[in-house]
């Protein structure tokens, strides 16, 4: 897949706005904000996919997707959402719009779920148990002037067996 070079910049993750994608250790991650004090990122690929980590001082610059480019989730027309799919890294359909779920890396004993809007901002979890979930979806690149016209697939997620299959 070819992506316009203008879609990329080399920035510190702390300098990215919530909702921006960046590469962390070779895998795509989503910059997130939860509450007023929780700055972090949700891993979308790799062995820690679905986990939300805090930003730490000294994180190296990363390849990032920047304006006027962005991303949107895509599902196949024939796929049927399920209420039974795991929350982590599934695309959740709620009254508030699409959400992406993750688990908090700080909780080592139990899985604590955190949900984010496509803007990377945290949302309340209270209605997420009733959400319909797509466990197979993709992240598509777009240009601001053509918001839902894909320039290419950045990665594909398949959580049907709680494993992610991706391409980048």
Order of helices and strands: EEEEEEEEEEEEEE
Assign a percent range to the helix content: under 10%
Largest sheet: 9 strands, mixed
Count up the helices: 0
**Low confidence ranges:** 163-168
Q: What is the mean predicted local confidence, pLDDT?
A: 89
SS elements, strand count: 14
Oligomer: single chain
Distance between the termini: 8 Å
Beta-strand proportion: 35-45%
Rg from C-alpha positions? 15 Å
- What class do helices, strands and sheet pairing give? mainly beta
Principal-axis shape equals: globular
Helix-strand layout with pairing:
Layout: E1 8-11, E2 21-24, E3 27-34, E4 38-43, E5 51-54, E6 62-65, E7 69-74, E8 91-94, E9 97-104, E10 113-117, E11 122-123, E12 132-134, E13 136-143, E14 152-158
Key attributes of the depicted protein:
single chain; 168 residues; mainly beta; 3-stranded antiparallel beta sheet; 14 strands; 0% helix; disordered C terminus
Overview of this structure, please?
Residues 163-168 have low confidence and may be disordered. It contains no helices and 14 strands. The chain has 168 residues and is an all-beta fold. It is globular. The N and C termini lie close together (8 Å). The strands form three sheets. Strands 2, 3, 4, 5, 8, 9, 10, 11 and 12 form a nine-stranded mixed β-sheet that branches. Strands 7-13-14 form a three-stranded antiparallel β-sheet, with no helix packed on it. It has a two-stranded antiparallel sheet with strand order 1-6.
């Amino acid at each position: 897949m070819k992506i316009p070079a203008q879609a990329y910049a080399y920035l510190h993750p702390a300098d990215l706005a919530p909702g921006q994608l960046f590469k962390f250790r070779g895998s795509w991650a989503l910059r997130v904000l939860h509450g007023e004090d929780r700055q972090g990122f949700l891993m979308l690929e790799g062995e820690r996919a679905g986990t939300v980590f805090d930003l730490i001082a000294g994180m190296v610059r990363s390849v990032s997707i920047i304006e006027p480019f962005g991303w949107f989730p895509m599902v196949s027309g024939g796929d049927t959402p399920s209420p039974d799919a795991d929350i982590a890294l599934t695309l959740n359909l709620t009254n508030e719009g699409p959400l992406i779920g993750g688990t908090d890396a700080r909780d080592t004993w139990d899985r604590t779920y955190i949900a984010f809007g496509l803007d990377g901002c945290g949302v309340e979890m209270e209605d997420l148990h009733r959400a319909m979930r797509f466990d197979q979806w993709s992240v598509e690149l777009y240009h601001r002037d053509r918001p839902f016209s894909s320039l290419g697939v950045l990665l594909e997620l398949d959580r049907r067996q709680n494993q992610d299959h991706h391409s980048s």
